[in-house]
Amino acid sequence: MAEWIGMGRRARRCYGFDEIALVPGTQTMNPNEVDTSFEIDGKKFKIPILAAAMDGVVDVKFAVEMSRIGGIAVLNLDGVQTRYENPDVVLEKIAKSSPQEATGLIQSVYNEPIKDKLIAKRVREIKSQKGIAVLSCIPAHAEKFSKIAIGEGADIFVVQSTLTTVKHVSSEYKSVDLCKFCKNAKIPVILGNCVTYETTLELLEIGAAGLLIGVGPGAACTTRGVLGIGVPQVTAIVDSASARDFYYKRTGRYVPIIADGGMSKGGDICKAFACGADAVMIGSSFARAKEAPGRGYHWGMATSHVNLPRGTRIFVGTTGSLKEILLGPARVDDGSQNLSGALKTSMGSLGAADIKQMHDVEIIIAPSIQTEGKIFQVDQRVGMGK
Question: N or C: which end of the chain has fewer CB within 10 A?
């Protein structure tokens, strides 16, 4: 599979969403009759699209509304929601800052200490409104924050970092024992992020209830530019799905993998499922919702890093309600709204009755798929030419 890139060095060719297409089979289905649900440790959700744990995307109100619709929104416990009693004031400042000021302002805003009482308060606020409380934090905070969140009735906990591995070497600090953490947690634990077969398999073996797949593909993430690290999402998902399937055959325990980042339109999401994803996590699409706290702006989780930011603030605009973006009706022509409807229609066209059948759809390498016959759209900057 690898190609020579120089004397004594070979590299594997990897693929992203724009380079592939899905091939229709011999059967089609009524889109209204396909099953898009997925499960995490026995908890079933009808919409397999998660809102990312980013401060411009998810707050308490957004999480509650997402729960009401049938999906999952992850609240970032390392963000402004747990640093400020009234985060709206801070979010307004970030939205109003100039591009030149944004990174510095975000860095200063995130210097405010995280408050235990606000962690508890945010979980209570979600639960009191009958929302599904899914919380996220970095590994260093996992043991402390999870105890607070679980004590207040959290449903799922996410331990998330740029790269997550079972083995982490450090002489400066004690790293969290993820195996022990998953075993002792009283609720399902999702771990991330990873992109390789080997790491996926190791994280599955320590008891993860779900895995986030993706390093650097997010719209507001600059990890690939700053660190040079990443694997295009098509290859990352396929490799991780292969590890999931091997683990399932060996143990009988099926653990969902969640493609995280790189998807801004319905077509990208459909391709992610065909590559083997059980669910997807997106940020920028939801940042465009009227209910999103970012006021049309979106920034990466590592944007606030004091010494080496690995994210940036981008303007995505506000294009519609959360319901329109997730369920329609779509009011734009570029595939960024009615994401659930796009998935159902694609599954119907491909003859896939459920997500697992979607995993068996034929995939082709098609670098012209985005441009073939689209000269007028590109010239007029409409539809796929935007």
Answer: N
Strands 134-137, 72-76: pairing is parallel
Point out the catalytic residue in the list 137, 194, 221, 275: 221
Cβ-proximal residues to 177 (8 Å cutoff; 6+ apart), any chain? none
Burial 317-329, CB ≥16 within 10 A → b, else e: eebbebbbbbbee
pLDDT digits (tens, 9 = 90+) for 119-158: 999 999 999 999 999 999 999 999 999 999 999 999 999 9
Instruction: Tell me the per-residue pLDDT of 101-120, one tens digit each, with 9 for 90 and over.
Output: 887 888 888 889 999 999 99
CB 159 within 8 A of CB 137: yes
250 carries an active-site annotation: no
- As a whole number of angstroms, the distance between CA 298 and CA 266 comes to 19
Copy the structure tokens of residue 30. Answer: 């009524």
- Domain ranges, ordered by start, for the chain: 16-385
Collapse the DSSP code of 11 into the 3-class scheme (helix H, G, I; strand E, B; otherwise coil) and give the result.
strand
Q: How many CA atoms lie within 13 A of 46 on its CB side?
A: 11
State yes or no: is 313 an active-site residue.
yes
pTM for the predicted model, two decimal places: 0.93
